[in-house]
């Protein structure tokens, strides 16, 4: 069990917000030293453009799936979760960095999103259910 998985949500988020920039700086310096400044910056810019394109395409597809679920009278919890992860993916891909790009691109893989959704559901889905 990893350190973040045993933590409560707010301390885990604090740790992520503290550690992510440090890891990104180390990666920028390491990669920049190996391949140079211009190629490093080019990778960051290209991944932002490619990521934005993929996020846009997948976001539209997930919106269509959500609308289809609503029309069929099904509560679109899965589609909403996937849509939220695509939104997070877009934010991560537009944030300059290598670690954020890896996580952002991972969230664009539907099978990975489903694993994450199920994990969150098992971990945090035991709370009260609100019925309207």
Kindly describe this structure.
This protein is mainly α and 132 residues long. The chain has a domain at 37-123. Helices cover 79% and strands 0% of the residues. The protein has helices spanning 9-35, 37-71, 77-94, 98-106, 110-124. The radius of gyration is 17 Å and the shape is flat.
Write the SSE topology:
Blueprint: H1 9-35, H2 37-71, H3 77-94, H4 98-106, H5 110-124
Helix pairs in contact: 1-2, 2-3, 2-4, 3-4, 3-5
Cα-atom radius of gyration: 17 Å
Low-pLDDT sequence parts: none
Q: Name the helix and strand elements from N-terminus to C-terminus, one letter apiece.
A: HHHHH
Helix content: over 70%
Number of continuous helical runs:
5
Keywords:
single chain, 132 residues, mainly alpha, 79% helix, 0% strand, flat
